[in-house]
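USER: Fancy drafting a protein?

ASSISTANT:
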Amino acid sequence: MTIVSSPELHRRSKYLVKTVSSETQEETETECSPYFVDLSTLPQSQIEHLRETGLLHNDSVYVCLLADKHIEYLKQTWDTEQKLRPSFVSLDASRPWMLYWTLHPCDLLGYAPSDDDCLLILNTLKVCWTNVVVTTTATAAGGFGGGPSQMPHAATTYAAILTLCILASQQSSDGTTTTNNNKPFAQQALQYLQDIREPLFHWMMSLREKDDVTGGVAVRMQHDGEMDVRATYCVVAVAKLLGILRPELTEGMAQHLASCQTYEGGFGGEPWSEAHGGYTFCATAALYILGYWNHDSAIGTPTTNSSPKLNNNQRIDFEALTLWLAARQMGFEGGFSGRSNKLVDGCYSFWQGGAVAIVSAMHQARSQQRRKERQHQQRNVTTSDNNRDADPWLAGNFDQSKLLLLDEGMLERYILLCAQDVTGGLRDKPSKRRDFYHSCYNISGLSVVQHCGQVSFGHPTQSRVAQTHPCYNIRIDRVRFMLARFADETKEGFFSTS
């Protein structure tokens, strides 16, 4: 589908009572409305102008992704021939984030920095590492801060590790993903990840905090820092990619995450707080990585025998989560909002879209399991699901013919028409300025909807990006490489250096 012209899709929001929130919503819909015209009805001069910008395909009115312009905008973080503006000094404590926000979308767009630039990125991350001593055990530990000599932080550690995984899994010139023969920076990045696994594990262990109220275990973002589901997700995702997701690290985490689900269905940052898209993604993805989404019920029972079950007071309301996520897609704009009664924002294309992909996968898995059970009951045979723990995206068995629990065309339309800046980069909404953060998560959301669903808006090839993994948000082949690289080591020994 190239043009969204159905009157039903252009229906404005209606309210019983006019409030400040309803007025800002009306303003946002008015702001987006000009982007939703029937492109085929535009004067030829306007069509030609849009083609000159690259937004429309030369031979049609298909909308294109301005990949080259986005790459040019994003690569300025590491390109020595370009310099960031002085205003970027405000992000000096977010160096790992800036590198991740720019390298990952470039990776999805099929662009790889030069070997020298990759080495520069690697060395920049290395100076963000800070060694610490866990006082309770006198154990050497460490993590990544936002810059040199800064306190290790779960969020910047997550960004640094994902960036290092992208570097370490770069293909060699012979097309393999395991040798890295002609990529010295990839060998160095992989060795560096090997070297920091043990101190990183000890540091993450030191962030665990027993929650006496919920009976679970929360995670701090840093020593003496706040506790919320972001920290739990960052620790779980990093540990899984590096093969250090040990029972002593994860014990009690799922119980705490379950306590953060709100009456609305989404998850808040901590118990009894408002449901929010970013926190909902973190909780949903962390629970998936931990194996706590049961295919048969909404209780959150683990799919592996090594983890304890959640009791009846810690139920995860799967149906309420599904409904809350579905309700966050805006009926007029097509993008997602982060909370109830909030405005559309391009970054939630991934935060909400990624969570929708995970929940959609669980709906598929539960339906398949129930269908198998019915078939076996008819044959009077005991059933077992040997593939229950299989990652559907890595295994390639996510059924794209079963649509995501969202309107894919509407979301793609919002990203391609409202979020793209024609000079390069992506944004929150048309009235906002482009930035690295929104560029990363708009493109990531586009990847999720294209590869977990079906392309239903935009040019069939020139709006396409590579596949990201909804749980980790790096390319699917990067995840596969990392999990395979450290899987054997965990069998041989916890921190084997072989």
Summary: Strands lie at 129-134, 139-144, 208-210, 217-219. The longest helix spans residues 348-379.
